[in-house]
Amino acid sequence: MGWGYRRHRVYEFQEFTMKKLLLATAATLITGSAFAADIPQYQEPAPAYQAPASNVTWTGFYAGINLGYGFSGDFDANRGVRLNEASGFTGGVQAGYNMQYDPIVVGIEGSLNYADITDKYDGHKGTYGFNGSITPRLGYAMGDFLPYIKAGLAFGDVEINRFGAKDSQWQVGWTAGFGAEYRVTPEVSVRAEYNYTSYGKDDFDIRSGVVNAGYSGSDIKVGVNYHF
Q: Which compartment or compartments is the protein found in (predicted)?
């Protein structure tokens, strides 16, 4: 065999070796890809959901209207005048100013109301009419929701009628209550509250003598406020 034949065999061997190497490499790549596909891939945990921060602020002036019902009214009159089950409607207006120190809300509110809270007994009648209050408020803001407490000065017109003769006095006392307000829109809120009001006693000069009396009682109110 000559040199040409030997060289041809070398070429065949090299070609065969190269094919085996390429096939082995391809098999390795395919096997490695399949194995990698079976390995669980680490993923970053999804971030915890966070509710969007409310852009509502309770700071500022507001004004609105209210409507309610007074109950358990007691005129605490002497001389056997049992005017201690007074009830009736009440309604009026309120205005105030809040300052928010997140989440604490402090403010002051004034109200003017008309009420027809009455009780009758044996020719006697007690009536609680025009009234108002000036009350600091303290609340805890939870976004659009604001629960609060309030307490302050109260004043009102109390009338005692005895067999057609009557006398009225403007009385001064205190009031306290609690409630909750909800922001329907950035400008409008609705609320509900309970109040207890108590006045000192005064002398009412009516027929056949003087009746010493003063009003105290509860009310529940709903209202709407506009925030400026």
A: Cell outer membrane
Q: What is the CATH number of the domain that holds 124?
A: 2.40.160.20
Q: Is residue 75 part of a domain?
A: yes
pLDDT of 77 reads: 87
Taken in order 168, 172, 177, 180, is the CA torsion positive or negative?
positive
Closest to 216 in 3D by CA, of 199, 202, 193: 199
CB 207 within 8 A of CB 162: yes
pLDDT at 24 over 80: no
Cα–Cα distance between 41 and 119 in angstroms, integer? Answer: 79
Q: What are phi and psi of 181, to 5 degrees?
A: -130, 140
The two tokens of residue 205 are 């000069």
Q: How many independent structural domains does the chain possess?
A: 2
Is the pLDDT score of 148 beyond 50? Answer: yes
Same domain, 89 and 161: yes
pLDDT per position as a tens digit, 57-86: 999 999 999 999 999 999 998 876 789 999
Tens digit of each residue's pLDDT (9 = 90 or more) over 170-182: 999 999 999 999 9
Please give the distance of CA 103 from its chain centroid, rounded to a whole number. Answer: 12
Please report which helix (H) or strand (E) contains residue 56, including its range.
Answer: none
Question: Are 27 and 82 in a shared domain?
Answer: no
Claim to verify: residue 93 and residue 8 sit in the same structural domain: no
Beta bridge partners of 154: 133, 173
Average pLDDT over residues 100-117: 97
123 plus 222 within the same structural domain: yes
